Amino acid sequence: MTILVIADYSKDAQDNKVLAPATLNTVAAAAKIGGEIHLLVAGAFVGAVAEAAANIAGVAKVLVADNAAYAHQLTENVAPLVAELGKGYSHILAAATSNGKNILPRVAAQLDVDQISEIISVESADTFKRPIYAGNAIATVQSNASVKVITVRATGFDPVAAVGGSASVEAVAAAHDAGISSFVGEELAKSDRPELTAAKIVVSGGRGMQNGDNFKHLYALADKLGAAVGASRAAVDAGFVPNDMQVGQTGKIVAPQLYIAVGISGAIQHLAGMKDSKVIVAINKDEEAPIFQVADYGLVADLFEAIPELVLTA
Amino acid sequence: MAGVSDCTFLTMISESMKILVAVKRVVDYNVKVRVKADHSGVDLANVKMSMNPFCEIAVEEAVRLKEQGIASEIVVVSVGPSTAQEQLRTALALGADRAILVESAEDLTSLAVAKLLKVVVDKEQPRLVILGKQAIDSDNNQTGQMLAALSGYGQGTFASKVDISGDTIAVTREVDGGAQTVALKLPAIVTTDLRLNEPRYASLPNIMKAKKKPLEVVTADALGVSTASTNTTVKVEAPAARSAGIMVKSVAELVEKLKNEAKVI
């Protein structure tokens, strides 16, 4: 058995391409399946990412497809590459990041196999668990596909070490350019705070924040705790904060050591994105809010009094 | 590009721009589902069913494109049980012109649905196909991408904005780091994210009118594609319950608990 993992990467605050942390969780899932692990880095000018990939513990080989056609991981060009390379593998894995979710189903369809999305555990080489219905049920799914195509929910697997490996690096010459799509531009959030899905502590705000400006209270708390800042769908829909901060069923899935939900009522869709956090704190002035049902520590209070006090005393 | 500056040419394109929208009948988003005692699935008996919220956004976007004079016709399609006609009628009430139900009593995988939709795409030849990015039952987030692969079209997934100009659609996508815009050659596939639009409600007169709009029913079998799956659901269980928490009376008590009991700060 040999497993192909698609490496994901993004840009850091200095505009350098860096390996996405979720790649380490995906390699961990591959290690649980067992067998040799190869990593594919597809993009343009991805030498630094490939170098980082070769250092990941447990990776035997890194395939680098460095070609202008793969810039920005355009799926119309990357998917045929992955499908072509993937035919020789028992499994193709990608993190359930926006890139992984965009690319992998296209690969699965090209290979004519069903995909298994967002696994949270590996039961055996062909059987996996995944949440359905916003995490209100857990399905155990078995695949008899010749190549098993799977996205991995990072929170289900502890990351492997980013260093300690010494994989061989091999260039892939294949250039697929479908010629039907092109990159126009991007607006990426720049923040010095930890990335939401990798942070040990997450502070999230909901409709109770009342406006975007009030999120400054959460930023102050986050900076005190070394935390990332998230938001409920209600806060994003209301325009308080941008979409990349949304935690929930269809936003980001987080499972930090500590999740502090502030002014969040606790809709099913939000709970789906954070209920696997180790410790959950809910601060809400409505004592009936459903968020208290999943909280380890609940505090009924006016957040505009409680949060500044928390900043001073935490 | 020849012809793009030619107004007559552009009008011709817009007049013939058909949009296909795929919708799914799912358990209503407000329902908290329960797992069946025999672990075969979730209990959907007597549960409220609705159009998948992301599909509502897909229908709304098509209707807006028609209202702007960009689209000429909206065909809505669903792959599902006979009862999915209800959701198709809803889409017709919201502004779709006609509907197609690809009827199947089976629980089909995303790939099977994509294959059936591909047959509809081949027959209808839309310039644009809009789907929800994800159904809130299976949470797969696959069908649009798979349909794009099978059709050989570009895909603008997780769209928060679309802009059609001539032969091209610019799609702004919600991605992990923020927003990304790609340009796709038409025909293309778009899957909707939450911020693309805010769907309207169907008015009573439009609900009445929708009853007279054409709704064609074909069986999945009649479309002649294999819907066999490489996946088997072995069992479905309830998630592990969280142990009950406690209410604290003050910020000071909270800080004390987080430091000394939970040891997380």
Give me some keywords for this one.
heterodimer; A: 314 residues; alpha/beta; Rossmann fold; 2 domains; 8 helices; globular; B: 265 residues; two-stranded antiparallel ribbon; disordered N terminus; Rossmann-like_a/b/a_fold (chain B); electron transfer activity (chain B); ETF_b (chain B); ETF_beta_N (chain B)
Notes on the structure:
Chain A: Its cofactor is FAD. Chain A: Keywords: Electron transport, FAD, Flavoprotein, Transport. Chain A: FAD binds at residues 207, 232-233, 246-250, 263-270, 284. The complex is a heterodimer of chains A (314) and B (265). Chain A is of the alpha/beta class. Chain A has two domains: 2-171, HUPs (Rossmann fold), CATH 3.40.50.620; 201-313, TPP-binding domain (Rossmann fold). Chain A contains eight helices and 18 strands. A seven-stranded parallel β-sheet of chain A has the order 7-11-6-1-4-5-12, sandwiched between helices. A five-stranded parallel β-sheet of chain A has the order 15-14-16-17-18. In chain A, helix 3 crosses helix 4 (98-111) and helix 5 runs parallel beside helix 8 (303-313). The longest helix of chain A is centred in the N-terminal third of the chain and has 14 residues, at 98-111. Chain A is globular, with a radius of gyration of 20 Å. In chain A, 61% of the residues are buried. With 265 residues, chain B is of the alpha/beta class. Chain B has one domain (17-260): 3-Layer(aba) Sandwich (Rossmann fold). Chain B contains seven helices and 13 strands. Chain B has helices at 7-15, 53-67, 85-94, 110-124, 143-151, 204-210, 251-261, and strands at 18-23, 25-27, 49-51, 73-80, 98-103, 128-132, 154-165, 168-175, 178-185, 188-192, 215-219, 231-237, 246-248. In chain B, helix 3 (85-94) links the parallel strand 4 (73-80) and strand 5 (98-103). In chain B, helix 3 (85-94) crosses helix 6. The longest helix of chain B is centred in the N-terminal third of the chain and has 15 residues, at 53-67. Chain B is globular. At the A-B interface, helix 3, helix 4, strand 7, strand 9 and strand 10 of A face helix 4, helix 5, strand 7, strand 8 and strand 9 of B.
